[in-house]
Amino acid sequence: DKGTYPFYMLKEVDEQPVVMRKIVQEYLNEDGVPVIDQDLLETMKKADRLYIIGAGTSYHAGLVGARMFERLTKVPTQVFISSEFAYEQPIMSERPFFIFLTQSGETADSREVLVNIKKQGWPSLTITNVPKSTLSREASYTLLLHAGPEIAVASTKAYTAQVAVQAVLAKAFGMARNQQEAVDFDLKQQLGIVAVGMQAIVDSKDQLESIASRYLATPRNAFYIGRGIDWSVALESALKLKEISYVQAEGFASGELKHGTIALIESKTPVIGIITQDRTAGLTRSNLQEVVSRGASVLTIVSKHLAQADDTIVLPDVDPLLTPLLSVVPAQLLAYYTSLGKGLDVDKPRNLAKSVTVQ
Ligand code: M6R
């Protein structure tokens, strides 16, 4: 039931702070130690490499997850689009462990991978929002997202839940591998900060609605750019915008723009820079300068400690690994208001279904 909300998507965006608290409640004990099946962790400890598999938004959540697993566990981690992995399996490590990310648990491309890797005798975990879904039943282990039903085709709270649950698992697995960085990572406190920060962002809807109407209502093209984890969020932000507002949007690695794609920048093309990481902030800012001088309309989504006077959207500060949980929220709302402003059916964009059961 959408209650007083005009669309499910807006309701689901608004639910994200509650979902973060729910994940803390379900997965972290009083001392902030993850409560995760020991058998799952024992199996993961035997792996020499993690393979994360997903489609669409779930793939984008996996890109963020891989950075967390590598930093907190020191186990090499690769992310694959399921429809690619299914038909061209790369050369594998000796002891792979598979993590399937799927909100619905029914995506045919992801299932195809699961079927193939099971035949090869490899263990797997499905992280899903739907208990007893196909990929949950067929994998060796399941972790639930606890996000509550997601109805809008555009995935929002499932993305942030996937990122948060991967953070829990990365901390648990890192601790099981005696990694000091995982022990020191105060995820419980940080997810509390995230929940408060998300609330502040969803409370600034008016600002986001006016930015959407000013910059995104008319252009044909738009770009989200960032480096590292910000690039991963740029990909998800662009997908949100294109799937519900039909603006041709691309998520781009900031440093790669000048190697060709900058030719697409015209007068007033919106370019939205995501800037949350100390190491890359200056570089992304200079990439934004390059597009300003070609006439682009530049907007920024920036962590507070990196913010400058003319930044567009300022995010509360949080651990650098968790910034996607905040930076994606304004992008979700910009997509929402762009779609709404065009009078489109936000929840049911053309040509799309909530779960994709064809290959
Ligand atoms: O249910 P899944 O997470 O496996 O779905 C995968 C994609 O179809 C899905 O994330 C899709 O990209 C989103 N609906 C986009 O918002």
From TrEMBL:
<feature type="domain" description="SIS">
    <location>
        <begin position="211"/>
        <end position="349"/>
    </location>
</feature>
<comment type="function">
    <text>Catalyzes the first step in hexosamine metabolism, converting fructose-6P into glucosamine-6P using glutamine as a nitrogen source.</text>
</comment>
<keyword id="KW-0808">Transferase</keyword>
<dbReference type="GO" id="GO:0006487">
    <property type="term" value="P:protein N-linked glycosylation"/>
</dbReference>
<dbReference type="GO" id="GO:0006002">
    <property type="term" value="P:fructose 6-phosphate metabolic process"/>
</dbReference>
<dbReference type="GO" id="GO:0005975">
    <property type="term" value="P:carbohydrate metabolic process"/>
</dbReference>
<keyword id="KW-0315">Glutamine amidotransferase</keyword>
<dbReference type="GO" id="GO:0097367">
    <property type="term" value="F:carbohydrate derivative binding"/>
</dbReference>
<protein>
    <recommendedName>
        <fullName>Glutamine--fructose-6-phosphate aminotransferase [isomerizing]</fullName>
        <ecNumber>2.6.1.16</ecNumber>
    </recommendedName>
</protein>
<dbReference type="GO" id="GO:0004360">
    <property type="term" value="F:glutamine-fructose-6-phosphate transaminase (isomerizing) activity"/>
</dbReference>
<keyword id="KW-0032">Aminotransferase</keyword>
<feature type="active site" description="For Fru-6P isomerization activity">
    <location>
        <position position="354"/>
    </location>
</feature>
<keyword id="KW-0677">Repeat</keyword>
<dbReference type="GO" id="GO:0005829">
    <property type="term" value="C:cytosol"/>
</dbReference>
<keyword id="KW-0963">Cytoplasm</keyword>
<feature type="domain" description="SIS">
    <location>
        <begin position="40"/>
        <end position="180"/>
    </location>
</feature>
<dbReference type="GO" id="GO:0006047">
    <property type="term" value="P:UDP-N-acetylglucosamine metabolic process"/>
</dbReference>
<comment type="subunit">
    <text>Homodimer.</text>
</comment>
